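@channel anyone free to eyeball this complex?
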Amino acid sequence: MKEITLTINGKQVKGKEGDTVLDICQANGIDLPTLCHYKGLSDVGACRLCVVEIERERRPVPACTYPARDGLVIHTHNEKLEKYRRLILELLFTERNHLCAQCVASGDCELQSLAYEYQMDNARYPYSWPAFPVDPVNDYLVIDHNRCILCGRCIRTCDEIVGVHTLDFGYRGWKDMVIADLNQPLGKSSCISCGACFQVCPTGAIFSKSSAYKGRPEECQKVNSICPICGVGCQIEALVKDNRLVRIDSPDLTDNRGILCHKGRFAILDRKHERVNTALVRNSRGKLESRPLSEAINIAAKKLAELKARYGNNSIAGIASSQASNESLKAFKEFITGTIGSKLIDTLDGDIYRTIIQGINSYQDKAELDTEASLEEILKADCILVAGANPLESHPVVGAYITRAARQKRAKLIVIDPTQNSFAYHTTLWLKPKEGKEALALSVLTKATLDKGSKKGSAQAKKIASPLSNINVRQDSEQVGICADDLLEAAETLGKARHSIIIYGDGILQNKNPMLITSLLNLAVIVGNQSTGKPRIISLKPKGNSRGAWDMGVPNPSQSIMKNLTGNGVKALYLLLADDYVDASELPNLRKGMDFIVVQSSYLSSATSKANIVLPSPTWAEVGGKYSTLDGTVKSTSRLIKSPDGIKTDSEILREISKHIKK
Amino acid sequence: MAKVKVATVWLEGCSGCHMSFLDIDEAIIDLAKVVEFARSPITDIKEFVPVDVGIVEGSVGNTEEEEVLKELRAHCKILMAWGDCACFGGVCAMRSTFDKEEVLRRGYIETESTYKGKIPCPPGVPALLDQVKPANHVVKVDCYVPGCPPEPKAILYALNELLAGRIPVLPSDMMRFD
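replying in thread with the prediction:
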């Protein structure tokens, strides 16, 4: 990049060709006021606060959109410019209803800070007092158009960083306002509630219901961490006041895994489920009553030791939720397989793990989970196949990545799903096989792709082709309920792609059919990926730390414990739920005849109601821990808040029980 | 030296600015040595006499307030605005986005606790203006102390500046709109 030299305020400074005047000012420590500029977004010159004077220009120009050239002579601060800037602030304040005293953003508002800086103690212009609507329909966000300065940051963030482009300007002139889709209420639009617009809004126009009035940033402590909720592993910056989470922000929206979603940004601020604050022990009348933790640990240890001695090690089974941290899971594994000596250990999502493992094994013995691509590869893809997944629901950041690739890179998006397609606006092709015909549909697609593909002759292709030899694409596509032309078009698109990626999730995994995984892997091998030569595939695993639990071997690779709890002489169950709120449908059939059930959980649920002993777990925010992301990197979270008094970590409790049993 | 004469008026506002002024604590003793209050809610004197400094708290929302403010301006050499209402319209101006009739109806008839309400209209009750205005949109204002209410130290700073013969402009770190 060519270096250029400019004169700013009488000083020679250097920059690169392609920089804007604002870029060079900022790089050289010259402070220009801005409102519509935001790091990582394109510049539009909406607010005009960064106006500068450039010699030979007839009028002041906004620095953010003015391309720097060699030899420019620029003045950034003089009486005239400062007068203009204050004038712009006065116009902004009188254009809409900026009443700081009743605004949620007061004290955290860039417009207000600039007004303070420019000592704007009155506004000379007539106030227009418009009556704009307030849109409170979204679960987490409110848009108060009366406080909007039309800087467009939210719109550009939604478009350029998140990629969804729900927001844009509607109307003209005085009536100009930010709208969602074709002027829908935000809560009924294509908005994914990621909250990035809220983070970038310089005023109180977009604010969060979960954070409002809980505390101003200057009163809060900032803690950087990782969100462990779904396994994407987004970076978060938590604002904490008086041991309460006030707000979750992204430390840098433009960074990898920086955009966050409604689960990580908002849902964790509103704890809906009732907490387990003390240990609970079932008394002689059959009611759970609270007891000191040490006493509950004692009772649990005594009972477990007794059952172990009487019925043997394998009379006690252990099931963990993959939402627990690596530390908790490690302690759990040691406890069940070591202290207890039982082989009966599993995770709640163990069946899904076994489905994937079997699917991979029958495809190629040597292949392991590392065929999985990193999530950032989605952004580089030119063809994305989403099979039986609703990432916008389960892993919203992945969903945003897919949308962004489809919109910004014009990646072809093919969805295979009998029922749902959350990418309706961006899908090139939606193949809807009849329910139960997914496996055949994938085989037909693989066959069609093989026929069109460049790798037709390779040994690998032949190996894959042989079991598919009796498939007739035209006939069989009718049978699975997909129009043959659509299927052939999909095959052609996949065949032409240079960087294709296959993403599958719940819809495939819940079938618990390993053949589906094998078919997807076959397809991935045929389609290939010309940049790496490896098949690229991403499985959207059900829980936040599924990958961690699986990598550590908590679930048994071949045997399902959950299904076989009954009738195998299992007398006791130890359930480690940690901070996972487990719905009744997710639970194993807790056998009525089971002698003893210990549940370690942060929340009261249908599982704790069946327990003999409930031990309190801290939530992830209350202890730091390690979690593995979907694509297999291990990330550490930090402790954000203190847990309620008397609560110990999962591993501490498990080790204490161990100690008692070993005595 | 003769004392500086000050008059203050409390228009559409909550008196919070006057309270904040009284909150300057012991500084009020020194101030009383050099300042004399004429018309003010503090002295409860109602008549206007010519003064050096006029101070206005509150915004202008009806015809009476408009008249009082104009009279204050006519009787003072320097006019200072206290608080967000006088400087910008403030909380009182929230009604400006609605029609005057709508506001009266909501206040006197539709209020949840009102039974058979009616809008009062005896002669002599000042009429609401269509929109609430800050002081400088009615008369010339010379200096401003924004805040809701302004910090006592900001009020004291502004008064001391005036006593020193300067027109005060609050430094950035004393500015606040809430």
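from a first look: The radius of gyration of chain B is 17 Å.
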